[in-house]
Structure formats: C-alpha cells, structure tokens
C-alpha cells in the first residue's frame, strides 16, 4: 500500500540521485485513488511529481483547496488514456505539467490548440505512449509510428514539447526468460529516433516501470518510473542496488 510511510519514496530516490546524478531515475508517484491528504504528506517529504489516470479524479484532486495552498510547486502528470472529448477538461487542471499518453496526431493537435487557448507561457510537456507488446487492450502508438509522431509534434504543435517515450508493457514478465522485450523495444526506438532526427539521446527520456518491475526497468535504461504501490523501505533497497551496478 501507498501508506503515509510510503512517502519517503521521494527521499529514497533523492538519496540515490545524489550519489549517481547522471543516472538518476525519477519517481512519479501515482496518486490515483489516493486522497488529497496523502498527496500533501508526500509533498511535505519532497515529492513533486504526481500522476493520475482519470481526468475527473485528477481535476477534483488538483482543484482541492488544501492541495492548491500547500503544494505550490506540484507537477501533475496525466497518465491515463485521453479521449479527445476530455481534452478541454484536462487543460483546466491546475499545475498540469505533463501529458504522458499522446498516441494520435489528432489528439496532439487538439491538446496543442486547447493549451494555446489557455494562454500559458510555458509549453505543455508530452510523452508519446508506445504500445510495445501490440496487445489490443492497451493504448498507445505502434512502435513504427514513433518517428512520424515526433515529427508531427515538432512541425504542428508549437505549444507542446516532446520529451519522453512511455510504455506500460507486458505485466508479469518472467526475467528468467531474459530482459522484458517491451522495455527493449522502447530502448531501441529511442536510438532509432535520435539517429534519424539528430536528437541528442539525453534529450529523449524513457518512462517505463511500475511498482512490480521498476528495478528491472531502471537497469535497462528507464529514466522515469511510475510507482503506485510501494513503501519507502521497499523502494530504497532495490533502487539503490540498481544504481550501484
Ligand atoms: C496505476 C498506474 C501505475 C502504477 O502502477 P503500480 O502497480 O501501482 O505501481 C503506473 N502507470 C499507469 C499508467 C497506471 O495507471
């Protein structure tokens, strides 16, 4: 459970980050179903990035007066599937920082124009979600569409800034069979993308890994993990181990 004690998670990773700054994986605390008080407590421990996967829940949580007054530097990520009809609602989220799940050019266009209308001086950062295992039940762009999507955003969406590739990937992969192939797909996609579009590799981060598999994800190159169900103690040891290699 993501209990109050969890909230050292920010601490756990920061301690690691200080030791190995160039390889620092960053923690997105997944706050879906968690009450506002837990978010405030985590914020008090130094956690700044939080993600939710339903637009309505995110809007309510981020508009909570206690969160608004206690967490001025909070950065909200939307991590769920986004339908076009919900874009305007999402754009109303206070302190929205990142949309993790862009998977259609038309969605990117709509988010771009909606963000523009809001008149923000900052760009909205976005990730492209890739469906690395090709399962129909999962959202995301097929890997082969990645380069065209990045080009589309760069050419047509001046209010968006593409920063990362994201995947959910297969659950319960047995590491005895070797590395998770979904993570490998994302790693090699970045390589291909950066080469084709002449982008320095360190400008495209990889967001992959959840409570169950974040340690492996970091080992194979993830820079950002999404964690909903770990205590600080559970996180600290494996993350530290992953970094020390
Ligand atoms: C819930 C959720 C997570 C977190 O999963 P845990 O198993 O709780 O760590 C990560 N990513 C997405 C998209 C989610 O919806």
What features would you highlight for this structure?
8 strands; 10 helices; disordered C terminus; 245 residues; alpha/beta; eight-stranded parallel beta sheet
List the helices and strands and how they pair.
Elements: H1 9-19, E1 26-30, H2 36-44, E2 49-52, H3 55-62, H4 65-70, E3 75-78, H5 87-91, E4 96-102, H6 105-118, E5 124-129, H7 146-156, E6 160-166, H8 181-196, E7 205-207, H9 214-219, E8 224-227, H10 232-244
Parallel strand pairs: 1-2, 1-8, 2-3, 3-4, 4-5, 5-6, 6-7
This protein binds pyridoxal-5'-phosphate.
Protein name: Pyridoxal phosphate homeostasis protein
Family: Belongs to the pyridoxal phosphate-binding protein YggS/PROSC family.
Function: Pyridoxal 5'-phosphate (PLP)-binding protein, which may be involved in intracellular homeostatic regulation of pyridoxal 5'-phosphate (PLP), the active form of vitamin B6.
Q: Summarize the amount of helix as a percent range.
A: 40-55%
**Which word captures the global form?**
globular
Ligands in the model, by name, code or SMILES, are: pyridoxal-5'-phosphate
Proportion of strand residues: 15-25%
**N-to-C SSE string, H for helix and E for strand:** HEHEHHEHEHEHEHEHEH
User: How many DSSP-defined strands?
Assistant: 8
The profile of the biggest β sheet is: 8 strands, parallel
Q: How are the strands ordered across the major sheet? A: 7-6-5-4-3-2-1-8
Spatial gap, N to C terminus: 28 Å
Low-confidence runs of at least 5 consecutive residues: 1-22, 240-245
* H/I helix tally: 10
GO molecular function: pyridoxal phosphate binding
Function: Pyridoxal 5'-phosphate (PLP)-binding protein, which may be involved in intracellular homeostatic regulation of pyridoxal 5'-phosphate (PLP), the active form of vitamin B6.
Protein name: Pyridoxal phosphate homeostasis protein
Keywords: Pyridoxal phosphate
């Amino acid at each position: 459970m993501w209990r109050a004690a969890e909230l050292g998670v920010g601490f756990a990773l920061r301690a690691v980050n200080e030791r190995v700054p160039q390889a620092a994986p960053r923690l997105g605390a997944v706050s879906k179903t968690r009450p506002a008080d837990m978010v405030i407590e985590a914020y008090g421990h130094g956690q700044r990035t939080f993600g939710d996967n339903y637009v309505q829940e995110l809007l309510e949580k981020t508009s909570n007066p206690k969160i608004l007054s206690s967490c001025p530097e909070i950065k909200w990520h939307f991590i769920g599937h986004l339908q076009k009809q919900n874009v305007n609602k999402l754009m109303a989220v206070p302190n929205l920082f990142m949309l993790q799940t862009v998977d259609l050019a038309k969605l990117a266009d709509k988010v771009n124009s909606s963000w523009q209308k809001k008149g923000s001086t900052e760009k909205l950062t976005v990730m492209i979600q890739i469906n690395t295992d090709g399962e129909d039940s999962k959202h995301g762009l097929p890997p082969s569409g990645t380069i065209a999507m990045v080009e589309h955003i760069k050419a047509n969406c001046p209010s968006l800034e593409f920063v990362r590739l994201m995947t959910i990937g297969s659950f319960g992969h047995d590491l005895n069979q070797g590395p998770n192939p979904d993570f490998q797909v994302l790693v090699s996609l970045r390589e291909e993308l950066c080469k084709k579009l002449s982008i320095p590799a360190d400008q495209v981060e990889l967001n992959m890994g959840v409570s169950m598999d974040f340690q492996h994800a970091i080992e194979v190159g993830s820079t950002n993990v999404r964690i909903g169900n770990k205590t600080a103690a559970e996180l600290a040891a494996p993350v530290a181990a992953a970094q020390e290699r």
